[in-house]
């Protein structure tokens, strides 16, 4: 199956590419999970986070925002000892901060999707040189998330989040998933 240039031969990466990346997501829990995972990725490769995703689901209480909003400093210190996740104190504190901010949003799904007008933005890139790391929509999302109290939500992270959750469909035109998702 022809895949996007970034997808390696790692089976986990291929499954993510083939089944999840670029598929429009409107489930609040999934969007919250992806926002936290994209923040965890900052400065790292996505495959690093993807390989740790199941452990994150275990130790972060299934990405339950209400529970994560109550993480104590002691719990964060315990998480800092877990080799199954990315042990970065600032990122782990951001989990708590972002959960608290998430819970203050009246309708996070509609609000997040509003940055693309409520419907997926379908790009028609034939080459990796056409792909962007940041867009005006991602910059606007980043600014709004920061204003709402979120952390680790820079414009590059926001664009990766938009791609991952199908707000933006960036499968290249030579990828089998492009044909499947272009009408989403």
Automatic annotation (TrEMBL):
Positions bound to Zn(2+): 4, 17, 171, 175
Name of the featured protein: DNA-3-methyladenine glycosylase I
Pfam families in the record: Adenine_glyco
GO BP terms, alphabetized: base-excision repair
Cited NCBIfam families: tag (TIGR00624)
Top-level taxon: Bacteria
Keywords of the record: DNA damage, DNA repair, Hydrolase, Metal-binding, Zinc
Reactions mediated catalytically: Hydrolysis of alkylated DNA, releasing 3-methyladenine
InterPro entries per UniProt: Adenine_glyco, DNA-3mA_glycosylase, DNA_glycosylase, Tag
Keyword Coiled coil: no
EC number: 3.2.2.20
Entry GO MF terms: DNA-3-methyladenine glycosylase activity; metal ion binding
Function description: Hydrolysis of the deoxyribose N-glycosidic bond to excise 3-methyladenine from the damaged DNA polymer formed by alkylation lesions.
